[in-house]
Design brief:
With 268 residues, the protein is α+β, with helices and mostly antiparallel strands. It has one domain (3-107, 174-257): Aminohydrolase, N-terminal nucleophile (Ntn) domain (Glutamine Phosphoribosylpyrophosphate, subunit 1, domain 1), CATH 3.60.20.10. The protein is built from 4 helices and 15 strands. Helix 1 (16-24) packs antiparallel against helix 2 and helix 3 packs across helix 4 (152-167). The radius of gyration is 17 Å and the shape is globular. 42% of the residues are buried.
């Protein structure tokens, strides 16, 4: 399976420290060697870096690790292919436009027999169940709300209902953002940590790297980091209960809803 990394902050922040540990899991300390990607929101724009090479040996990943891009919402993904070949078109995160904003999506899991009708507004370029589910989510949101963007509260409720439908087909851990907020669904496994004053030191689990956040932050900064597995070994991470959808804004969880999918559909 793949692994996810997300960051949501109240001020633009770089993800270099967390990405250093995450990058190692793409073929060095773990087996996720079928490509990687990362997306940064900057205002209404988005920087998207994708590479079908393992992140541990990717020259592009090295650039990202050393380049302090400041963003309030970041989504990253390292891939262990289940559906779709290894290639750029199947590399997460995926990006589409909805209501005049870029939307970024990355998925960890495996959806069985998920073949919804796509009417043409959003169509997958690759062959993954992940991109297919993203296209369907955006299609259903546009059909539900038309050309007017809903409030975030209305949107979160709608994503919750759609997540219930998709989750019937299997594991559906995902991260989703339009740059204003970050939604995270823990179908089976996700954890998060909120870093805020008083800031302390943090040490990576996958690399012998430590940082003292008190030297890099102000008293008002707040950063939430979400990952499939905790990235540090000396911080208190919160494991999200399986079957929960989370809304993060300004570096903190704002709302949580339970997702209770029915039995997983098996292939005949």
């Amino acid at each position: 399976m793949c692994q996810l990394l997300g960051m949501n902050c109240n001020v633009p922040t770089d993800i270099c420290f967390s990405f250093t540990g995450f990058q190692a899991r793409g073929g060095a300390t773990d087996v996720h060697s079928d490509g990687w990607g990362i997306a940064f929101f900057e205002g209404r724009g988005s920087r998207l870096f994708l590479d079908p090479q393992p992140s541990c040996t990717s020259p592009i990943a090295e650039v990202v690790r050393r380049y302090p891009i400041h963003s309030q919402n970041v989504i990253a993904h390292i891939r262990k292919a289940t559906q779709g070949s290894i290639g750029l078109e199947n590399t997460h995160p995926f990006m589409r436009e909805l209501w005049g904003r870029y939307w970024i999506f990355a998925h960890n899991g495996n959806l069985l027999d998920f073949a919804p009708e796509l009417v043409g507004s959003y169509l997958p370029v690759g062959q993954t169940d992940s991109e297919r589910s993203f296209c369907w989510l955006l299609q259903e949101l546009r059909q539900r709300f038309g050309n007017t963007a809903p409030t975030t509260t209305e949107l979160f409720a709608a994503i919750h209902q759609l997540t219930l439908e998709v989750s019937q087909h299997g594991e559906f851990n995902f991260l989703l953002s339009n740059g204003d907020w970050l939604f995270a669904h823990a179908s089976t496994k996700l954890s998060f940590v909120v870093r805020q004053a008083p800031f302390a030191q943090a040490h990576l689990s996958d690399q012998d790297v430590m940082v003292d956040f008190s030297e890099l932050t102000t008293a008002n900064d707040r950063v939430a980091v979400i990952a499939t597995l905790p990235l540090t070994d000396n911080e208190q991470w919160t494991e999200m209960p399986a079957g929960t959808l989370w809304w993060f804004a300004d570096g903190a969880p704002m709302q949580t809803l339970a997702t209770r999918p029915g039995p997983v559909k098996k292939k005949s």
